[in-house]
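mind reviewing these tokens:
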Amino acid sequence: MRLAFLSDIHGNIGALEAVLADCDVAGVDAFVFLGDLVFFGLYPQPCFDALSARAPLICIKGNTDANLEEVETFTPRSEFERQLLEVVRDCAGRLTSDTLGTISSWPVAETLTLEGHRIMCCHGSPYHFNDRLSAPIADEHLARRVSEEPEELVCCAHTHVPQVFGMYGKPIVNIGAVGYSFDGDPRASYAIVDVGEQGLLPEIRRIEYDRERYAGELDLKARRMPLWRSTAYAVRNGMPLQDWKC
């Protein structure tokens, strides 16, 4: 069985459509989504609809998915936070109430069991969507805790940097980001995991799409909401601006 793991789409419908087309060519059987679907992108509802049409086995809540729940309660304490709230409200206002409710219901982590194999699915870590699992290991306590989980494989995201590595013997696949990357490669990133008699075999895939077209649309949006410049920069360069805070 071939599983596609997608994450950090961030409202980028062009990148998502390119990844889904590659999944069709690759013969993917089922999908898993690991969080951050709509916020900080121009096409939140179309991304939700396109993902939902593939009937993911699991959908995980990411940190920016959780931001949508804070629209009515968040109090800005700086100019940056004021602008950030404006962008969150803009995103939430372009989603249906049913979509908002569905995203709010997603878990922080969930175990997927297929053909006798168990995969831990999470955004940041099994414990919180803001944790970061990456190599080299930055948090020894977190790494040891993750390594003690019973699942054979941990699939995560959040860092926007795709990696396949180990934490004290526990295989980790950070699938990277569909919407925009932070590793210097601006192509969309996702992972395929083959599940079968040979175990769990992960592969990171990088997919081209019309980045300049989308970045141009972000430039236009940034005339009214300056924070969109950060997204446009990442789409073009595969790297965050130095002052990126999201």
In short: The two ends are 35 Å apart (CA to CA). The first strand starts at residue 2 and ends at 6. Residues 13-26 form the longest helix (14 residues). Helices lie at 13-26, 44-52, 63-67, 79-92, 97-105, 140-147, 211-222, 228-237.
